[in-house]
From TrEMBL:
Start and end residues of each L27 domain: 35-95
Family: Belongs to the MAGUK family.
Guanylate kinase-like domain mapped to chain residues: 336-513
Name of the featured protein: MAGUK p55 scaffold protein 3
Organism field: Oncorhynchus kisutch
Xref: InterPro entries: GK/Ca_channel_bsu, Guanylate_kin-like_dom, Guanylate_kinase_CS, L27_C, L27_dom, L27_dom_sf, MAGUK, P-loop_NTPase
Stretches assigned to the SH3 domain: 203-293
Record keywords: SH3 domain
Keyword GTP-binding appears in the UniProt entry: no
Stored Pfam families: Guanylate_kin, L27, PDZ
Residue ranges of every copy of the PDZ domain listed in the record: 114-195
Length: 529
């Protein structure tokens, strides 16, 4: 061993000790342990602190050094360090019961494996189903974060043969459920692995926008209502796994899982089958049997990487369920996003739009509409309208060049797609107010529309309405907004409640400014290259 003087520092001591280490079969474990200790960054930091304090021992201490010394010598910190050392010396690995006597015989079957799991008063985190053809008990679903998932040893498709040495081949599903629920502490499973084992569940990068409200308690077909994920229309959902074609596991973006309270992501309804699909199995100590009958959609209408979940046309409210989305931020070299305003006549959207544009005409503009009516003396071509003949208007209409058009006092009016492109080509943000039916044409990767639903606050209007505003018109305005929200609300990015013209204008202006600098969720197909 090296000879150490009284003045030898901690760093030199450890360096000398390290130099004396020699490979030796009798002390190999000790050598590995010491090597791991010396490799710890925390030890290096302590050595630096020790050296710095030694260098300062001869001179006066600074205020910071005095404070550090006081903290390190305080009874509370000493108690915390003592508790840490005590806990670190203990072994918290679970104590498993001995393996069954016939364990070696079990291994003679090449396809059989024995799985030992520890579950502390929690569900196994897996559901089972009975194969109608063979009668075998199959693992149907693995809940992410549960005991089965954490082990990495149980996979979807595995055949379950025994639970704690008890054969389940001829047992009823409720008997199997009882066996699993009564097993506490440790559980031993005899399993025949699936022909092709699936990899452990990995964090998915698939995000969806929910296009409807979902309450698990109202869905009698869910495998477990406690595990269901409630969400509102417009919520962004991160799909954790789609391994089960009937039920996805997901979480709302922004939610976090606490191991004690939320050991696994909730289930998300994802099945859109043409046939009844089995959703039977074991979960939370209960045997579940049901048929997934809701959210039906024919196979020819299904598309997208999300299997049956993403509808081919989210503008169709009859089939709107989920829409795959991704983060998007406008780039300086891109054309500005189109801003679409919808709402009832009582919202007076055109007035709101024109006021915002008048405040900043260099950044915002409208798409100049086409008309067949004669030009008035004060009007200019291409400013108020594009004045065209009826023949030209009809030809453009037949060529689907208008996003919407109609007739008023025997004259035709319409807003063309080229009029929007003309505004965007000038690097201006185009604001259009249209009937919501036009969203089917505008929701494209070219325009990337941001849809704002302007709603007047009807109760306030009733209290402050003028004599010219009848209760009937207010009721019609409210009814029209409700119908529009029911049919097209899932396509709306923002709802603007119009208290008054000034506050609504301020809010709209703020939205437009954020569109140019912030990140927003948009359909994946808009940015996929």
């Amino acid at each position: 061993m090296p000879v150490l003087s009284a003045g030898t520092g901690l760093h030199e001591t450890l360096a000398l000790l390290t130099s004396q280490l020699r490979p030796d079969a009798n002390h190999k474990e000790d050598m590995v342990f010491l090597k791991d200790v010396f490799s710890e960054k925390s030890l290096g930091y302590l050595m630096k602190v020790h050296i710095r304090l030694g260098q300062r021992s001869c001179g006066p201490m600074s205020v910071e050094e005095k404070e550090l010394l006081q903290l390190l010598t305080s009874p509370h910190l000493k108690a915390v360090l003592s508790v840490h050392d005590t806990v670190a010396q203990k072994n918290f690995d679970p104590v498993l019961p001995p393996l069954p006597d016939d364990f070696e015989d079990e291994l003679e079957e090449e396809s059989v494996k024995i799985v030992r799991l520890v579950k502390n008063k929690e569900p196994l985190g897996a559901t089972i189903r009975r194969d109608e053809t063979t009668g075998s008990v199959i693992v149907a679903r693995i809940m992410r974060g549960g005991a089965a998932d954490r082990s990495g040893l149980v996979h979807v498709g595995d055949e379950l043969r025994e639970v704690n040495g008890i054969s389940i081949i001829h047992k009823r599903p409720d008997e199997i459920s009882q066996l699993l629920s009564q097993s506490q502490g440790s559980i031993t499973l005899k399993i025949i692995p699936a022909v092709k084992e699936e990899d452990r569940l990995k964090e998915s990068k698939v995000y969806m926008r929910g296009l409807f409200d979902y309450i698990p308690a109202d869905d009698k077909a869910t495998p477990c209502q406690e595990a269901g994920l409630p969400f509102k229309r417009g919520d962004i959902l991160q799909v954790v796994t789609q391994d089960d074609p009937t039920w996805w596991q997901a979480k709302r973006v922004g939610d976090s899982y606490l191991p004690s309270a939320h050991p696994r992501p909730p289930l998300l309804p994802a099945c859109l089958p043409t046939e009844d699909c089995d959703c039977e199995g074991y979960f939370n100590g209960q045997y579940i049997a049901g048929l997934r009958r809701s959210f039906r959609l024919s196979r020819k209408d299904r598309s997208g990487s999300l299997g049956g979940g993403a509808t081919s046309d989210p503008t169709d409210p009859d089939f709107a369920t989920y829409e795959e989305v991704t983060r998007y931020q406008h780039r300086p070299n891109e054309r500005p996003r189109l801003v679409v305003l919808i709402g009832s006549l009582g919202a007076r959207i055109n007035e709101l739009k024109q006021k915002v544009i008048a405040e900043n005409p260099h950044r915002y503009a409208v798409a100049v509409p086409h008309t067949t009516r004669p030009k008035k003396p004060h009007e200019k071509e291409g400013v108020e309208y594009h004045f065209v003949t009826k023949q030209a208007f009809d030809a453009d209409s037949l060529s689907n060049k208008f996003i919407e058009h109609g007739e008023y006092k025997e004259n035709q009016y319409g807003t063309s797609i080229e009029a929007i492109r003309s505004v965007q080509a000038k690097n201006k943000m185009c604001l259009v107010d249209v009937q919501p039916e036009a969203l089917k044409t505008l929701r494209t990767s070219e325009f990337k529309p941001y849809v704002i639903f302007v709603k007047p606050r009807v109760p306030e209007s009733r209290r402050r309405r003028s004599a010219a505003t009848s209760p009937l018109s207010l009721k019609m305005c409210s009814y029209e907004s409700q119908q529009m929200d029911q049919r097209y609300g899932h396509l709306v990015d923002r709802v603007l409640i119009k208290e008054d013209s000034a506050s609504a204008c301020t809010e709209l202006r703020g939205i437009l400014e954020r569109l140019e600098r912030e990140t927003f969720w948009v359909p994946l197909c808009w940015v996929r290259t």
